[in-house]
Write a structure and sequence with these properties.
By secondary structure, this protein is mostly helical. 0% of the residues are buried. The protein is built from 6 helices and no strands.
Length: 171
């Protein structure tokens, strides 16, 4: 039950060389029963000390310096200008609604593709009436839009060119 010897015994032709191990590698002898450390020993160690709080900058200081330089140089804050540009862009996007006529064209194309897929799967007769009805509704809506556009164009043209024969524009 003893520990192994720390020295190696070389072959008979060589002299014995003592082998020394670092203190960390040597096995520690454990006591037969665990010992409790007294409270003052625990408190003397680092277990009860708190790390000091080290605040870190919450904002980019270089960015703040550039911002203040711009304010002092031009009298305006770049952030405000950027916000105004973003608002203008959003308003332009809201004003520029997608063309309903183009949307209808895309929807009709999707309906046709769907019908072709169903026919390829052998379900064409089941969906043909429904899809053709939807397509005719879309075409009717496109005709209404076309009439409105042509009427608007006539009104614009008559206002822009009041001189001349109006009957030629309406034909």
């Amino acid at each position: 039950g003893d520990a192994l010897p720390l020295q190696r015994f070389p072959p008979s032709s060589k002299q014995p060389v003592p082998v020394s191990y670092p203190a960390a590698c040597q096995p520690h002898r454990l006591p037969a029963r665990p010992l409790l450390r007294p409270a003052r020993v625990c408190q003397a160690g680092d277990a009860y000390t708190r790390e000091k709080f080290k605040p870190q900058p919450t904002r980019d200081l270089e960015k703040e310096k550039r911002r203040l330089q711009n304010i002092l140089a031009s009298g305006k804050d770049e952030v405000e200008d950027k916000m105004e540009q973003v608002l203008v862009r959003k308003k332009e996007e809201e004003i520029a609604e997608p063309d309903r006529f183009e949307e209808l064209m895309n929807e009709i194309q999707e309906r046709r593709e769907f019908l072709e897929e169903m026919e390829a799967l052998g379900q064409g007769k089941k969906y043909q009436g429904i899809v053709l009805t939807e397509i005719s509704q879309k075409l009717h809506e496109m005709e209404i839009i076309d009439k409105k556009r042509s009427e608007e164009m006539r009104n614009i043209m008559t206002k822009a060119f009041p001189v001349g024969n109006k009957s030629n524009l309406q034909d």
